[in-house]
Amino acid sequence: MKFSIKIFLLLAFVLTELSLSFAKAIPIEADCTTSTPNYLMKPKIKISFIIARHRDCDGFGICDWNVGSVGRTQNKGNGVLYQDDASRNTLVLEISKTDGITDECYNKYFKTGVYTMEDDFPIPSEISKSLEYPGIKTIPAGKHRIVEINGLIYVYFPVK
Questions:
Q1: Which among 2, 82, 90, 103 could bridge 44 via Cys, Cβ 3.0 to 4.6 Å?
Q2: Is the pTM of this model over 0.85?
């Protein structure tokens, strides 16, 4: 009798292990329409930028934003622009230190941890529409926060 109980317990254990391993191997499909994270749904656009005052394209600020990429120079770069997760009235310009700007550009404009703009910068209408902003929006002059994490530079711009 003891022998058959041992076989029964061993068989039960093997079947349990097999069923658990099959359960892990079967992919479970998620319904993406109800649980898509916000960071995947928000619009992000790749832009090129020129760093300079808006009025004369010299000095500190933003002179131009365009959709797409340009060659990098001391005051030109490329990045990704999107709305901040915490506030709809804040734009984030994400720039790769290795691919988005030159070392000279980083040292001159971003190294201090504060991005200075001498003039207000009206956001081009095609970019405002792509980011789902209604009407004309402006980034005000002033000092704007920079955060660096893992080779990425995040510049936070308030939008008015």
A1: 82
A2: no
